[in-house]
Protein backbone atom coordinates (compact mmCIF):
# COMPACT_ATOMS: atom_id res chain seq x y z
CA UNK A 1 0.00 0.00 0.00
CA UNK A 2 2.89 2.39 0.83
CA UNK A 3 4.44 1.90 -2.65
CA UNK A 4 1.03 2.59 -4.16
CA UNK A 5 0.60 5.72 -2.05
CA UNK A 6 4.08 6.98 -2.94
CA UNK A 7 3.40 6.51 -6.66
CA UNK A 8 0.11 8.43 -6.58
CA UNK A 9 1.65 11.15 -4.41
CA UNK A 10 4.41 11.49 -7.02
CA UNK A 11 1.92 12.01 -9.88
CA UNK A 12 -0.13 14.38 -7.71
CA UNK A 13 -3.38 12.41 -7.78
CA UNK A 14 -6.43 14.14 -6.31
CA UNK A 15 -9.88 12.53 -6.28
CA UNK A 16 -13.17 13.96 -5.08
CA UNK A 17 -16.48 12.10 -4.87
CA UNK A 18 -20.07 13.18 -5.41
CA UNK A 19 -22.48 10.55 -4.10
CA UNK A 20 -26.13 10.80 -5.18
CA UNK A 21 -28.70 8.73 -3.25
CA UNK A 22 -32.49 8.60 -3.73
CA UNK A 23 -34.47 8.95 -0.49
CA UNK A 24 -37.34 6.52 0.12
CA UNK A 25 -40.00 9.08 1.05
CA UNK A 26 -43.72 8.64 0.45
CA UNK A 27 -43.92 11.79 -1.69
CA UNK A 28 -41.68 13.70 -4.09
CA UNK A 29 -39.60 16.70 -3.09
CA UNK A 30 -41.93 19.45 -4.32
CA UNK A 31 -45.32 17.76 -4.79
CA UNK A 32 -47.53 15.03 -3.31
CA UNK A 33 -46.92 12.42 -6.04
CA UNK A 34 -45.63 9.00 -4.86
CA UNK A 35 -41.99 8.05 -5.48
CA UNK A 36 -42.70 4.98 -7.63
CA UNK A 37 -41.54 3.76 -11.03
CA UNK A 38 -44.27 3.05 -13.61
CA UNK A 39 -43.13 0.51 -16.19
CA UNK A 40 -46.20 -0.05 -18.37
CA UNK A 41 -49.15 1.97 -19.57
CA UNK A 42 -50.60 4.09 -22.35
CA UNK A 43 -48.91 7.36 -21.44
CA UNK A 44 -49.92 10.78 -22.64
CA UNK A 45 -46.96 12.76 -23.95
CA UNK A 46 -45.82 16.36 -24.33
CA UNK A 47 -43.07 17.79 -26.51
CA UNK A 48 -40.57 20.47 -25.51
CA UNK A 49 -37.59 22.34 -26.91
CA UNK A 50 -35.22 23.87 -24.35
CA UNK A 51 -32.87 26.81 -24.79
CA UNK A 52 -30.22 28.37 -22.52
CA UNK A 53 -30.72 31.68 -20.75
CA UNK A 54 -28.21 34.04 -19.15
CA UNK A 55 -27.29 33.68 -15.49
CA UNK A 56 -27.47 36.48 -12.93
CA UNK A 57 -23.91 37.34 -14.08
CA UNK A 58 -25.16 37.88 -17.63
CA UNK A 59 -23.35 34.80 -18.97
CA UNK A 60 -24.56 31.66 -20.74
CA UNK A 61 -23.25 28.38 -19.28
CA UNK A 62 -21.01 26.67 -21.92
CA UNK A 63 -22.41 23.21 -21.09
CA UNK A 64 -25.98 24.47 -21.55
CA UNK A 65 -25.02 26.09 -24.86
CA UNK A 66 -23.42 22.81 -25.98
CA UNK A 67 -26.65 20.90 -25.29
CA UNK A 68 -28.71 23.56 -27.05
CA UNK A 69 -26.57 23.29 -30.20
CA UNK A 70 -27.71 19.67 -30.60
CA UNK A 71 -31.22 21.02 -31.39
CA UNK A 72 -32.89 17.96 -29.92
CA UNK A 73 -36.61 17.47 -29.38
CA UNK A 74 -37.62 16.23 -25.92
CA UNK A 75 -40.69 14.06 -25.47
CA UNK A 76 -42.03 13.37 -21.97
CA UNK A 77 -44.23 10.40 -21.08
CA UNK A 78 -46.72 11.26 -18.33
CA UNK A 79 -47.65 8.42 -15.92
CA UNK A 80 -50.71 9.91 -14.19
CA UNK A 81 -50.20 7.91 -10.96
CA UNK A 82 -46.65 9.29 -10.46
CA UNK A 83 -46.63 12.82 -11.88
CA UNK A 84 -48.68 16.02 -11.87
CA UNK A 85 -48.55 19.60 -13.15
CA UNK A 86 -45.46 20.31 -11.03
CA UNK A 87 -43.41 17.82 -13.08
CA UNK A 88 -44.78 19.39 -16.26
CA UNK A 89 -43.67 22.86 -15.06
CA UNK A 90 -47.29 24.00 -15.35
CA UNK A 91 -47.75 24.55 -11.59
CA UNK A 92 -45.45 26.17 -9.00
CA UNK A 93 -43.50 23.78 -6.73
CA UNK A 94 -45.13 22.96 -3.40
CA UNK A 95 -43.43 23.28 -0.01
CA UNK A 96 -40.17 21.37 0.44
CA UNK A 97 -40.81 17.78 1.59
CA UNK A 98 -40.19 17.82 5.37
CA UNK A 99 -39.61 14.05 5.55
CA UNK A 100 -36.80 14.35 2.99
CA UNK A 101 -35.33 17.31 4.88
CA UNK A 102 -35.27 15.30 8.13
CA UNK A 103 -33.45 12.42 6.42
CA UNK A 104 -30.88 14.82 4.96
CA UNK A 105 -30.29 16.37 8.40
CA UNK A 106 -29.92 12.89 9.92
CA UNK A 107 -27.22 12.03 7.37
CA UNK A 108 -25.53 15.39 8.01
CA UNK A 109 -25.26 14.66 11.73
CA UNK A 110 -23.91 11.15 11.03
CA UNK A 111 -21.18 12.76 8.91
CA UNK A 112 -20.53 15.37 11.65
CA UNK A 113 -21.51 18.11 9.19
CA UNK A 114 -22.80 21.53 10.26
CA UNK A 115 -26.42 22.22 9.20
CA UNK A 116 -27.01 25.65 7.67
CA UNK A 117 -29.14 28.23 9.52
CA UNK A 118 -31.62 28.57 6.65
CA UNK A 119 -32.37 26.31 3.69
CA UNK A 120 -32.61 28.18 0.38
CA UNK A 121 -33.67 26.38 -2.80
CA UNK A 122 -31.51 27.30 -5.80
CA UNK A 123 -31.46 26.45 -9.50
CA UNK A 124 -28.83 24.57 -11.51
CA UNK A 125 -29.19 25.10 -15.27
CA UNK A 126 -29.83 21.74 -16.98
CA UNK A 127 -31.03 21.68 -20.58
CA UNK A 128 -30.20 18.11 -21.61
CA UNK A 129 -33.95 17.45 -21.34
CA UNK A 130 -33.74 15.57 -18.04
CA UNK A 131 -35.87 18.26 -16.38
CA UNK A 132 -38.88 19.91 -18.01
CA UNK A 133 -38.03 23.26 -16.38
CA UNK A 134 -34.53 23.55 -17.85
CA UNK A 135 -33.07 23.62 -14.34
CA UNK A 136 -32.72 21.40 -11.26
CA UNK A 137 -33.87 22.60 -7.84
CA UNK A 138 -31.23 22.06 -5.16
CA UNK A 139 -30.63 23.23 -1.59
CA UNK A 140 -27.52 23.15 0.61
CA UNK A 141 -28.45 21.43 3.89
CA UNK A 142 -25.06 21.16 5.63
CA UNK A 143 -21.36 21.87 5.19
CA UNK A 144 -18.20 20.37 6.62
CA UNK A 145 -17.81 17.00 8.31
CA UNK A 146 -15.65 14.05 7.35
CA UNK A 147 -15.47 10.34 6.53
CA UNK A 148 -13.01 8.17 8.46
CA UNK A 149 -10.42 6.24 6.43
CA UNK A 150 -7.19 4.41 7.19
CA UNK A 151 -5.25 6.76 4.85
CA UNK A 152 -6.65 9.83 6.60
CA UNK A 153 -10.03 11.47 7.09
CA UNK A 154 -11.71 12.81 3.94
CA UNK A 155 -13.48 16.15 4.34
CA UNK A 156 -17.12 16.60 3.34
CA UNK A 157 -17.62 19.88 1.46
CA UNK A 158 -21.41 20.01 1.09
CA UNK A 159 -24.53 17.94 1.63
CA UNK A 160 -27.40 18.98 -0.64
CA UNK A 161 -31.03 17.99 -1.10
CA UNK A 162 -32.15 18.05 -4.71
CA UNK A 163 -34.71 16.67 -7.13
CA UNK A 164 -33.95 13.57 -9.20
CA UNK A 165 -33.95 13.86 -13.00
CA UNK A 166 -36.52 12.36 -15.36
CA UNK A 167 -35.90 8.80 -16.53
CA UNK A 168 -34.46 8.39 -20.02
CA UNK A 169 -36.41 5.80 -22.01
CA UNK A 170 -35.02 6.12 -25.55
CA UNK A 171 -32.79 8.36 -27.66
CA UNK A 172 -32.22 8.92 -31.37
CA UNK A 173 -30.05 11.41 -33.25
CA UNK A 174 -32.60 14.22 -32.96
CA UNK A 175 -34.98 13.12 -30.20
CA UNK A 176 -34.94 11.96 -26.55
CA UNK A 177 -37.85 10.31 -24.71
CA UNK A 178 -38.10 10.74 -20.93
CA UNK A 179 -40.62 9.44 -18.38
CA UNK A 180 -41.72 11.75 -15.55
CA UNK A 181 -42.14 9.12 -12.79
CA UNK A 182 -38.57 9.62 -11.51
CA UNK A 183 -38.50 13.40 -11.88
CA UNK A 184 -38.73 15.09 -8.47
CA UNK A 185 -37.83 12.11 -6.26
CA UNK A 186 -35.77 13.50 -3.32
CA UNK A 187 -32.04 13.01 -3.77
CA UNK A 188 -29.17 13.53 -1.32
CA UNK A 189 -25.90 14.72 -2.86
CA UNK A 190 -22.74 14.39 -0.74
CA UNK A 191 -19.60 16.04 -2.13
CA UNK A 192 -16.15 15.37 -0.67
CA UNK A 193 -13.05 17.54 -0.91
CA UNK A 194 -10.53 16.41 -3.58
CA UNK A 195 -8.23 14.93 -0.94
CA UNK A 196 -8.57 11.23 -1.75
CA UNK A 197 -5.05 9.99 -2.49
CA UNK A 198 -5.39 6.53 -4.09
CA UNK A 199 -7.87 4.54 -6.22
CA UNK A 200 -8.57 2.09 -3.39
CA UNK A 201 -9.21 4.91 -0.93
CA UNK A 202 -11.82 6.31 -3.36
CA UNK A 203 -13.65 2.98 -3.25
CA UNK A 204 -13.48 2.74 0.55
CA UNK A 205 -14.81 6.28 1.04
CA UNK A 206 -17.69 5.67 -1.39
CA UNK A 207 -18.51 2.44 0.46
CA UNK A 208 -18.50 4.16 3.87
CA UNK A 209 -20.76 6.96 2.64
CA UNK A 210 -23.12 4.35 1.20
CA UNK A 211 -23.24 2.49 4.52
CA UNK A 212 -24.02 5.70 6.39
CA UNK A 213 -26.88 6.41 3.99
CA UNK A 214 -28.29 2.89 4.34
CA UNK A 215 -28.04 3.10 8.14
CA UNK A 216 -30.87 5.66 8.09
CA UNK A 217 -33.28 3.00 6.80
CA UNK A 218 -34.75 5.73 4.58
CA UNK A 219 -32.99 5.33 1.23
CA UNK A 220 -34.04 3.48 -1.89
CA UNK A 221 -32.19 0.34 -2.97
CA UNK A 222 -31.61 -1.17 -6.39
CA UNK A 223 -29.94 -0.31 -9.68
CA UNK A 224 -29.83 3.42 -10.36
CA UNK A 225 -30.85 4.54 -6.86
CA UNK A 226 -27.27 5.47 -5.89
CA UNK A 227 -24.60 6.88 -8.20
CA UNK A 228 -21.06 8.17 -7.77
CA UNK A 229 -19.40 10.93 -9.81
CA UNK A 230 -15.58 10.97 -9.72
CA UNK A 231 -13.53 14.17 -10.05
CA UNK A 232 -9.96 13.15 -10.94
CA UNK A 233 -6.83 15.22 -11.55
CA UNK A 234 -3.03 14.89 -11.51
CA UNK A 235 -0.20 17.45 -11.43
CA UNK A 236 -0.08 19.48 -14.67
CA UNK A 237 -3.18 17.65 -15.87
CA UNK A 238 -6.85 18.63 -16.05
CA UNK A 239 -9.73 17.94 -13.68
CA UNK A 240 -12.02 15.39 -15.30
CA UNK A 241 -15.47 14.43 -14.00
CA UNK A 242 -16.62 10.87 -14.67
CA UNK A 243 -20.33 10.61 -13.99
CA UNK A 244 -22.75 7.89 -12.99
CA UNK A 245 -20.53 5.08 -11.62
CA UNK A 246 -22.85 2.52 -10.00
CA UNK A 247 -20.49 -0.38 -9.22
CA UNK A 248 -18.04 0.41 -6.39
CA UNK A 249 -15.61 -2.22 -7.68
CA UNK A 250 -15.17 -0.18 -10.87
CA UNK A 251 -13.99 2.93 -9.01
CA UNK A 252 -10.29 1.91 -8.57
CA UNK A 253 -9.99 0.89 -12.23
CA UNK A 254 -11.64 4.09 -13.45
CA UNK A 255 -9.22 6.20 -11.38
CA UNK A 256 -6.20 4.16 -12.54
CA UNK A 257 -7.19 4.40 -16.21
CA UNK A 258 -7.77 8.16 -15.98
CA UNK A 259 -4.35 8.66 -14.35
CA UNK A 260 -2.68 6.67 -17.14
CA UNK A 261 -4.64 8.55 -19.82
CA UNK A 262 -3.55 11.94 -18.48
CA UNK A 263 0.07 10.82 -18.05
CA UNK A 264 0.15 9.70 -21.70
CA UNK A 265 -1.27 13.05 -22.79
CA UNK A 266 1.45 14.84 -20.83
CA UNK A 267 4.08 12.64 -22.51
CA UNK A 268 2.65 13.58 -25.92
CA UNK A 269 2.68 17.26 -24.95
CA UNK A 270 6.31 17.09 -23.86
CA UNK A 271 7.31 15.31 -27.07
CA UNK A 272 5.57 17.92 -29.22
CA UNK A 273 7.31 20.71 -27.29
CA UNK A 274 10.66 18.93 -27.77
CA UNK A 275 10.09 18.71 -31.52
CA UNK A 276 9.25 22.41 -31.59
Give the oligomer, counting copies of the same chain as homo and different chains as hetero: single chain
Percentage of residues in DSSP E strands = 25-35%
The number of helical runs is 5
What is the CA–CA distance across the termini? Answer: 40 Å
C-alpha Rg, in Å?
Answer: 20 Å
Largest sheet: 9 strands, antiparallel
| Class by SSE composition | alpha+beta
Average pLDDT figure: 94
Approximate shape: globular
Q: What is the helical fraction, as a range of percent?
A: 25-40%
Helix/strand order = HEEHEHEEEEEEEEHEEH
Total count of strands:
13
Contiguous uncertain segments of 5+ residues: none
The domain count comes to 1
Commentary on this structure:
Helix content is 26%, strand content 29%. With 276 residues, the chain is of the alpha+beta class. The chain has one domain (2-23, 37-275). The strands form two sheets. Strands 1, 4, 5, 6, 7, 8, 11, 12 and 13 form a nine-stranded antiparallel beta sheet that branches. Strands 2-3-10-9 form a four-stranded mixed beta sheet, with no helix packed on it.
Quick rundown:
This protein is an alpha+beta fold and 276 residues long. It has helices at residues 2-11, 62-68, 98-110, 199-215, 251-275, and strands at residues 14-22, 44-48, 73-78, 114-115, 121-125, 135-143, 146-147, 154-163, 167-171, 175-179, 186-192, 226-233, 240-245.
What are the main properties of this structure?
single chain, 276 residues, four-stranded mixed beta sheet, nine-stranded antiparallel beta sheet, 13 strands, alpha+beta, 29% strand
Topology:
Elements: H1 2-11, E1 14-22, E2 44-48, H2 62-68, E3 73-78, H3 98-110, E4 114-115, E5 121-125, E6 135-143, E7 146-147, E8 154-163, E9 167-171, E10 175-179, E11 186-192, H4 199-215, E12 226-233, E13 240-245, H5 251-275
Helix pairs in contact: 4-5
Amino acid sequence: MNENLNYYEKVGLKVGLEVHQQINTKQKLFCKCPTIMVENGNFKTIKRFLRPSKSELGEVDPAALFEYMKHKEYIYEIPEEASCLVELDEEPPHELNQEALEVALMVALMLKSNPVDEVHVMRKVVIDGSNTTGFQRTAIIAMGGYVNDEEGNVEIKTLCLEEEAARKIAETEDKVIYRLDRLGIPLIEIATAPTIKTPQQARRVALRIGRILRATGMVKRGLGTIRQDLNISISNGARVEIKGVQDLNLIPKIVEYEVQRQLKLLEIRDELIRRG
